[in-house]
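User: Predict the structure for this protein chain, please.
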Amino acid sequence: MDDSAFKRWDDYTVARDAMLKRTHDRRVPWILVRSDDKKSARINIIRDLTQRIECPDKSKHLTAPDRRRLFSYSPARLKRLAR
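Assistant: Here is the predicted structure, written as structure tokens:
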């Protein structure tokens, strides 16, 4: 991140939060990913996607995503993440 982007961090955060709030819908929800550990974030995204895909041969024993890393958007959760 360059110095210019760092100075506008708060502006970016406000814009992101407004976009999420306006576009989130229970039919098409935003899914948030805690990404401080990139490998874990990516693995959990893959797990979430494989569980959402409808496929008759899909194994019922697929590992579920870690819901501490991947969760549905809500304004309250977003505020907790900011701490």
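The chain has four helices and two strands.
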